[in-house]
Amino acid sequence: MKYDKFFSEDVGSFMRSPVREIFKKVDLASIYSFAGGYPDAATFPIDDIRRISAQVLEKQGAKSLQYGATQGVPELRQVIARRYGVPVENVQITTSSQQGIDVCTRVLADPGDVILTTSPTYLGALQSFRAYRADVRTLEDFAFDRPVKFCYVIPDFQNPSGETMTLAQRQALVALAREHEFLIVEDSPYRELRYSGESVPTIYSLAPERTLHLGSFSKIFAPGFRLGWILGPVELLDQIYVCKQSLDLCPPIFDQYIAAEFMGSGALDANLQKSIALYRAKRDKMLSLLEQYMPQGVSWTHPEGGLFLFLTLPEGFDTVALYDRALSAGVAYVAGSFFFVDGSHRNTMRLNFSFLDASRMEAGIRLLAEVIGG
Amino acid sequence: MKYDKFFSEDVGSFMRSPVREIFKKVDLASIYSFAGGYPDAATFPIDDIRRISAQVLEKQGAKSLQYGATQGVPELRQVIARRYGVPVENVQITTSSQQGIDVCTRVLADPGDVILTTSPTYLGALQSFRAYRADVRTLEDFAFDRPVKFCYVIPDFQNPSGETMTLAQRQALVALAREHEFLIVEDSPYRELRYSGESVPTIYSLAPERTLHLGSFSKIFAPGFRLGWILGPVELLDQIYVCKQSLDLCPPIFDQYIAAEFMGSGALDANLQKSIALYRAKRDKMLSLLEQYMPQGVSWTHPEGGLFLFLTLPEGFDTVALYDRALSAGVAYVAGSFFFVDGSHRNTMRLNFSFLDASRMEAGIRLLAEVIGG
Questions:
Q1: Which of A47, B148, B278, B309 has the highest CB neighbour count under 10 A?
Q2: What is the pTM of this model?
């Protein structure tokens, strides 16, 4: 039987995640992987989760297993609202921050509508924008000759570049958004993972009337929980709420109570301090390994936080073509061109520094340097 | 600031769930509610979940908290595949069965495409179909003068009617689908909750080449877990898999391991037997209360399973208009017309019989009969 005629037009614009395709081909444990955005499993608060799970079943009982409100359970919305200092009605819980991106795009963009983004940018966001057949344009190049629905940015420790927008850059973006009347989607999964330098105000705090701020538990608690949140104006959240009814009725309830207790009791902050110390050491290790092993002509970013840095090889290198050789040698990365709106910058790659432990990191970087060195 | 110009065209077709709007207005505990599709909290296997949660953290450790495969964790796909006797590659895990409906619609239907359904039908499905601006038509009335993408049915203990399609009806639908070349989405959240009568084969078993079968843990385990599954041809599941990458990357991992252990170890079947006994008694109680209290001229369906039955009042009654009086009197239902594609049948209502315990059920039905009796 042929199925082609049954598919919607959107399907023609679906992108397969090259990251997820890599993980279908190889067993993560068998290679040195700098490819995914996986947190270090050592940061997962297993003992807290064991204790809190039992406590939630004891305290909330059946309520933690029943259907719940589409906006999220009140306890979780409250602890997030308190953390940011915003009213509860400005908080919508999402079933992962990826769902946050998807639902914002769904509610805001029709096929052909302009969405701006920096380039490079997060792959999963490009997937969502393209799946709705939006016209994805690069912020720096856009002439503002057509209306823009929103601009998508990751201001803190960007994925994939690792770079952070300065306050002046954030203010300039807000001014541009006010001038040309577009919204800003501020994706902020790494913000709490700062290892050096000074914190910069969120775009949401600079322009709460036109910003949807996406938060995530994936990098500060555990990605297996698939929980995130959106902060934004109630007028926008109200339509996101109605959309979410048809997406999945409500976020997972048991998980939300666990996350609420983890965040509300202070366990998250205690765990975060340990994670930051661990990741700071890993970032420093990564930077010194690159210094030690990479051939001349290779450069890289120096992130103040997050999980990634971005490597630029000399002109003429093609990291997509190089990829199979790297994989055969036992080391994985994500080719940088996948993160660019136009697929350019074939001489770049994204490297994750959160996942591997120090000795595997060294072995992996040595191998990668050999592959690059030729 | 005005937000209207930012919204996508889809937003104009969003429907607010009247069920969820009811729950925003009133505290469930303060009234006799026959409105929601809530399972009885007494069926929630709290002790199993406490034991299995700890066991999963012990056995799977960090794996249960890390990112996982978009198709679902292998252990859960395997136990579901075994339960149905199908290969694992025909199983996709979803973050709730509502997501199953949403993602099938997304992958199959463009604005204006014809989706067939029985009328009445599940409200959440109507919400999804309308949110994609599909042309929703009633199966019985459709002339087949245009191509159809798929027909959506709930063959077992339908929501809202409580009725079950006979084998002959299922075979006729399959023959029609083969003749007019459309797919079938078989929504099956209640199938395992049969209290009397004989099981009828699934449509998926009759036409695996053109059926997407949606299953759910919500009514047989706990709705707070937001886990469901889709069985279907690999060609369709492959596009659903790519779409799901941009929806939420993967279903909740910790929850999936808990569900896999609950189903795989036999605990689900043990719990199901108790749930069936409880719900059978509730259905029987509900039927006898209706017999005892309802005024003449009121009729209702006699479901062999599931959570709902459907009441028809004499012509001229309007259950939407009656609703505020019922709520003031302390009893809630869902007006039947919300489930009809054309909003007709204003003299009907859906009643849930799984949620209230026997004594509250009696008080509620007595009140409802008074409201109807006038």
A1: B309
A2: 0.97
